Amino acid sequence: MKKPNLEVALLAAWLCAATLAADDGVFDQYRDLMGDENPAVFVIDEGEEFWLTAQGPNAVTLESCDLGLGPGVTAGAYVRFPRHFADTNAVMDLESRLVYCMTTIQGRDLESVTAKPYSLRGDFGTEIEALVTWLAAESEGATIAPEQAHATERAMYALGKDIFFYRAGPHDFSCATCHEQSDKRIRLQALPDLTSHTGAAGSWGSWPAYRISQGLVRTMGWRLRDCFRQQRWPELQMGSEASIALQTYMAVNAAGGTMTAPGLKR
Amino acid sequence: MKALIAGVNIALTASLAAWTMAADDINAVLQNSFVAKNQATMDRLERDAVQTACSAPRGMLLDNDMLASLRAERLAAVVLPADGEYLGDWQRGAEVAGNGRGLQSSDDPAQPNGGNCYACHQLAPDKVAYGTLGPSLTGYGARGQSEAMLQYTWTKLWDTHAYNLCSHMPRFGAQGILTEQQLKDVMAYLLDPASPVNQAAE
After folding, report:
1. What structural domains does chain A harbor?
2. With an 8 Å Cβ cutoff, are B26 and A172 in contact?
3. How confident is the model at residue A26 (pLDDT cuts 50, 70, 90)?
C-alpha cells in the first residue's frame, strides 16, 4: 500500500486542530485530496507491531492467540466476528477476544488492559485500536460472514435486536430512532439504516475507521459508545454483552457484504 | 391510575413476549454493560410504560386498546402554561432550537439544555444544517395563532406521544428537557410572524 504523502499528513493534522465539528464541505475537500490514501495505514503497521511484540509477565507475543481460525491465523478472522469460543464458552467480539489473549497468553492484568480501550481526543491511539485496525485490514476484501451456527450466537443476535429498539433515557432514544430509516440525516450527517442489509453492510464493513475530525482510528466499540452518549445513556463498556449483542445484530444484517475497513470518516 | 398502569404492563408482557426476551433479563444485561458517567446515571436504563410499548421493532403488531389508553393517559397529563401565555421571545427560541447540548454525559449540567430541533427539522429557510428525521417546519407560523393551534403545538412539544404514541420526537416538557419558559420561546420561534422560520428564503 502506498504511504500517504507529507501534504496529506499535514492536512490531517490541521484538520483535527481545526475541530471541524460538522463541516462536510471540508470533509469532501479532504477526501478529494486524499484519494485512496487513508492515514489509518500507519495504524495498520502499528497494530502488526503490537501483535509481534513480546509483552506482559510472560514476555510473549500474541502470535499464539486464537481468533477463531486457529492460533495465530489473522487473515480473514475479522469477518467471522462476533463468534462463540469454546475456551470461554461465550460469544466475543474482536476487542474482548484481544483482551482475553492479552490476559491469558501474555499474563497481563485485566484492569490495566481494559482501563482505557479507546483514546481520547488529542491522544495517540491505543493498542486495542491499532490491533483492531490491523486485523480488519487482514480481512480487507473478504465477505462478511459472522458465525451463527451456535445457539449462543443466535441468542446474541436476538438480544442485539432487542437492544437496538430499546427506548430509554430522557430523550426516549433507541438506536432505531436514528438508524431504522433510509435517506435520513441528523443535521448534515447521513444516517445509515442499520436494519437493512445495505445500510448494515456499508457501516459494518467500513469500521474501524480513521476519523478525520479527531485524527484517530476508531473501532466499532467506540462508535457504539459515542452513539449511546448521544442517546443520553450511561457509558457502554468495551466487551460488554450489550456491545457484543449490537455488533452481532449489525454483522448478521451485513452478512454477504464486503469488508472495506479501515474506513475514512468525517 | 395505578391500576391502569398495572393493566398496561400485563398487556405489554403478553403482547411483547413473542419477540422480546424477558424485560428482567434485558435489564440485567444493560445493568452489566453500562456504567454511570456524570449526569448520565444508571436509572436512565429503566423504561416507563411509553418507552416499553415503543420498543417494538417497526411493523410489529401491538394491542391497539393498550396503545390508545396509553396515549389518552399522556394527553391527560399535559401541563399547559400556568399563566395561559403560550408565546415567549422568538430570539431566545432560536437559541433553544439550535442548541444540541443537554443531558449527555459530556454536557455541563450547569448550562441550559437545548431543544436541538435542527437535528430533525428544517426551520429558518436560510439555515442549511438541518436534519430530516422530522418534517420541515419552515413557514409553520402560517397556521396562525388560534387557541387550538397554540394548544396543539404546545402539546406536541410538551409530550409528542400524547398525539402520536411512539413518535421519534423527544417529550420536551414531560421529560423535563426544556423549561416552561424555553418552551414558550420555541413556540414563538415557530409561530411569531417576525421569526426567521416564517420569512421567505433570501
Report:
1. 2-265 (1.10.760.10)
2. no
3. low
Q: Are B26 and A166 in contact (CB under 8 A)?
A: yes
Residues B95 and B193 in one domain: yes
The interface predicted TM-score (ipTM) is: 0.91
Q: How far is CA A157 from CA A83, A107, A120, B149, B182, in A?
A: 11, 31, 30, 45, 42
pLDDT confidence of A30, banded at 50, 70, 90? low
Residues A171, B128: C-beta atoms closer than 8 Å: no
- Beta-ladder partners of B35: A235
d(CA A99, CA A94): 9
Pairing of strands B34-35, A235-236: antiparallel
What residues of chain B have any CB closer than 8 angstroms to a CB in chain A? 20-21, 26, 29-30, 32-37, 40-42, 44-47, 50-51, 54-58, 100, 103-106, 118-120, 128-133, 168, 170-171, 175-177
Residue B172 lies in a domain: yes
Domain count of the fold of chain B = 2
The residue behind cell 417576525 is: B194
Closest residue by Cα to residue A177 from A189, A190, A191: A191
Q: Is the pLDDT of residue B4 over 70?
A: no
Rounded Cα gap, residues B117 and B98, in angstroms: 6
